[in-house]
Amino acid sequence: MPASVRPLLSVIVAFHDMAREAPRTLHTLSPAYQRGVDAGDYEVLAVDCGSARPLPEPVVSGCGPGFRLLRMEPAASPAAAINAAVRASRGDAVMLCIDGARMLTPGIVRLTLAALRAFPDPVVATLAWHLGPKPQNESLLEGYCQQVEDRLLDSVDWGRDGYELFRIASLGGSSAGGWFRPLSESNCLTVRRTSWDRLGGLEERFIAPGGGLVNLDFYRRACTTLGPLVMLLGEGTFHQFHGGVATNVPPDRHPWARFHEEYVSIRGIDYASPETEAEFMGTVPPQALPFLAHSLDRLRGVAP
Question: Are 218 and 196 contacting, i.e. CB atoms less than 8 angstroms apart?
């Protein structure tokens, strides 16, 4: 991408020790996979947050002309590294993918750009799924692991049609209510650069492993300051099993209490999901119809 051409969107995706997961995630951000957009519409900054095995540069640059690798010093939290990456980016808007283990559906970039055209100061959000039959905190107790996941991914042609990922996934805990109930966070979240700057980016006082509740904090601040919240129907992110500090531990070892204690020490209040009414953009592919039915049941209060 010529330096004189400013992209519409900068995608910031953070990785730490994700040699297996990063190539898949980056492919799902590539112009070859994303539909209805040109390579010049967006750039992708892959932020390697001090991996023991650094992400190879060709893995990133090979995905497209607008892909760049930024290597950062090791730190427990990715907040400072992500803020630095945003400062190094050039897009008019910022898409934050704080967990590089999460693959994307093929319409996210196109619909995000449509939402940015439609609204002056939107918060564009997606739901989050886990690959596998249950949220991974539960499925790991039944033998779910990277080898099982590799076979699961091989069972569908997600490279040709990324919506096939819906067939092999379950909603993550933060998105358990589906499309029409409030979220506690979004793992693919977009705001305008001016809005990112107004919010001050990620709060760097969150220093717990993985950032603790830093992503939830940013989502809440965005939803209560900007607007409208625009939820992308029929799109989402899909978490690969990688030993994450919160996503890939048994429920009785989940670090929520420690993370929440840090949040209270910074904000002085308990964390609460923003009760923000959303606008909706997008269509639901056939593969995601069971999740649409679940979302409607949750809205009506007839599903757990």
Answer: no
Q: Please list, in sequence order, all residues whose beta carbon lies within 8 angstroms of the beta carbon of residue 194, skipping any fewer than 6 positions away.
A: none
Q: Say how many domains are in the chain.
A: 1
What's the CA gap between 178 and 197, in Å, rounded?
30
166: which 2 tokens? 């819906």
From the centroid of its chain, how far is CA 96?
A: 7
Name, in order, each residue with C-beta under 8 angstroms of 93's C-beta and a sequence gap of 6 or more: 8, 9, 10, 112, 116, 190, 191, 192, 193
Does this model's pTM top 0.90? My answer is yes
Task: Report helix, strand and coil shares of the chain as percent, to nearest 5.
Answer: 40, 20, 40
* pLDDT one-digit tens code per residue, 167-215: 999 999 999 999 999 999 999 999 999 999 999 999 999 999 999 999 9
Which CATH number covers residue 171?
A: 3.90.550.10
Cα gap 154→168, rounded to integer Å: 10
Domain that holds residue 56: 9-299
Task: Take residue 7 and report the two structure tokens written for it.
Answer: 């992209």
